[in-house]
Amino acid sequence: xxxxxxxxxxxxxxxxxxxxxxxxxxxxxxxxxxxxxxxxxxxxxxxxxxxxxxxxxxxxxxxxxxxxxxxxxxxxxxxxxxxxxxxxxxxxxxxxxxxxxxxxxxxxxxxxxxxxxxxxxxxxxxxxxxxxxxxxxxxxxxxxxxxxxxxxxxxxxxxxxxxxxxxxxxxxxxxxxxxxxxxxxxxxxxxxxxxxxxxxxxxxxxxxxxxxxxxxxxxxxxxxxxxxxxxxxxxxxxxxxxxxxxxxxxxxxxxxxxxxxxxxxxxxxxxxxxxxxxxxxxxxxxxxxxxxxxxxxxxxxxxxxxxxxxxxxxxxxxxxxxxxxxxxxxxxxxxxxxxxxxxxxxxxxxxxxxxxxxxxxxxxxxxxxxxxxxxxxxxxxxxxxxxxxxxxxxxxxxxxxxxxxxxxxxxxxxxxxxxxxxxxxxxxxxxxxxxxxxxxxxxxxxxxxxxxxxxxxxxxxxxxxxxxxxxxxxxxxxxxxxxxxxxxxxxxxxxxxxxxxxxxxxxxxxxxxxxxxxxxxxxxxxxxxxxxxxxxxxxxxxxxx
Length: 545
Known about the structure:
Layout: E1 2-4, E2 10-13, H1 23-27, H2 33-49, H3 58-65, H4 69-72, H5 74-86, H6 90-97, H7 99-118, H8 123-151, H9 154-185, H10 190-193, H11 195-209, H12 224-243, H13 253-274, H14 291-320, H15 326-351, H16 360-378, H17 387-414, H18 421-459, H19 467-482, H20 487-525
Antiparallel strand pairs: 1-2
């Protein structure tokens, strides 16, 4: 059944509809949908880009602001902290203030904060405005994605969601390249100033053509307890994940206290949000009874782990082991980003239409297989690997990611009603963000731990009497003596050279182990695909606005 609004436009197809909305009815639903898509994807790319674009500029920021490397890390940490805290609340905020007003305000807040980030003269100023920026950026992902689910008909969802996800996936890959170019040619301030014209265009498109959803339910009493518990719990958890490695994890008293605090508050949050006494929960965890949605969220945690974990590991490997410059590293990553865009659009085309050409679960299995092949390749790079070797592995990785995000996203949203789309979007994006935080934290610690182990094992072979050691050592001594070193100095230089070789080889092996760890993590999470159900497009509604 199609409801008609007072203005006469076609309205909502209820969940009980027996078939898709006729094309004639849809033709006048929203002639500005594609303009809204352009505005929302622009805002989303701007938000995701800001999570990685500043990373390469942190050393310059530290020098200009007189901060230590640990202190300047809060420029990234503060942004992610506030983003993670606000993400689950976006459904409540959109219902409370209206979709159009909330999105417009969030874009303006992001622009405003970006300007003051660029104008900051002290570390405290910069961190404060980054926190504000992160809070504004939450809606640019969650509410934007839910809006697209509500304003486009079922037969267009495949390609629309693929286009939107393409920006979210590719942006973190391009961030370091763009940030390095801006830092090299201008100053770190322009990493923030470039958001202003982009944000203005996005704000104009969204506020000019988008209207509030006629499906949205009005928010009731404010769940202050839920908001407080979530802020403390997620904030503490994100701090532990961001700062744990640098503070030696549970050997630091603050990390221990915040871990306990996050465990208690998040446990209490789950109980309170599911309690019958809480009539207006800030996060509706009840939608997780949907097995398909729960499985998709679990897979998004794995995807966040692989996406952000890979973006974290490869630049370290390329610049530390292969001596790539930041610009060269970014250029090597670029083809992989383009491959992601290509495969995401291909999946969108296959999933588009009233009846998908391919079962999304088949595409997910293909994507998993391709991604794991790329991790196997990256897990066998050596110190003599060249640009071509790394580019091919990253190309395969990028192609696999496109086959994962679009189909999982399609299955997840098709399993919920339009009224639940906003809640689902908040949890999906939170899962991706937390998956990335867990990935970086776990892989960073694992990398350090495995480096120590490999170094200890290699050192066992450095002893007098080992023929290979003696041959290598004497060859180095002879080489240094040819270059004018005395006997004693040549011996010391030879030991130093061997020490560097052992350290580098230990690091290479630990990077290999870390990439293989991502492969194993994907392999372990793959059975969740079996819990996904094939989507039923006839149940999706279209918002006239």
